[in-house]
Each structure stands twice: as structure tokens, then as C-alpha cells.
Amino acid sequence: MIVATRLSGSPFAINPDLIERIVENPDTTIFLVDGSSHIVTEPLTRILELIADARADVIARASLRRIELSPGQRHLEALRPAAEVHDSPFAPRQTET
Predict the structure, then answer these.
(1) Lesser CB count within 10 Å: N end or C end of the chain?
(2) What are 76-80's contacts with CB under 8 Å, separation 24+?
(3) Nearest to 22 by CA among 61, 48, 54
(4) What backbone torsions phi and psi does residue 77 show, to the nearest 5 degrees?
(5) Beta-carbon neighbour count of residue 77 at 10 Å?
């Protein structure tokens, strides 16, 4: 989601995947695939930056979640930091030196 500002000054979130087109003439208008439109205070270039940042964030978060699971390990347990699952049989084992 990206956060834009209506002309009234109120912020709202919008799903960038639903944006069909954006026009700046002179106000920036965002047209969605469902036919609705929203006039915002941000310039076209700023909306494009917000969309790029939102998509980069999704990709970065997805790459962090790519974890190989141990046999029998459940996916959600693999996503928790090891400190949270230290009593779990799936937690990394400490080796003595």
C-alpha cells in the first residue's frame, strides 16, 4: 500500500496494484482499474517513487522469508527469530567448543 494525500489534506492508503494510470494536469489524479479516481496533492513523480518503494519493500520482505526448512519444521516457526523459539525442538542447537 502507498499513502497519498487528498486535496482536503486527509491521508489515505491505496493499493498500487489497482492503479490503471496517473495523470498530472495540473492536479495529480490516480485512476483505478475499477473506474474510480482520486485527486491527490503529491506530484506524479512522488507517486511513482512511492509505488517503486512499495514494490521494492514487498520483494525485500519476500527474500527475507526464503528459508530452507529442516525436516519436520513448520513454516511459521522458521520465520520467527531464533531467540523466540529457543525452547522449540526446531531452534538452532548451540555447539560446545
Answers:
(1) C
(2) none
(3) 48
(4) -70, -30
(5) 15
**What one-character-per-residue DSSP string does 26-85 give?**
SSEEEEETTS-EEEESS-HHHHHHHHHHHHHHHHHHHHHT--PPPTT--HHHHHS-GGGG
pLDDT of 69 > 70? The answer is: no
Kindly calculate the radius of gyration of the chain based on its CA atoms and give it in whole angstroms.
Answer: 21
**Distance between CA 68 and CA 9 in Å, rounded?**
46
| pLDDT level of residue 89 (50, 70, 90 thresholds) | very low
Map residue 16 onto helix, strand or coil.
helix
Residue 35, C-beta contacts closer than 8 angstroms, at least 6 positions apart: none
**27-60 pLDDT per residue, tens:** 999 999 999 999 999 999 999 999 999 999 988 8
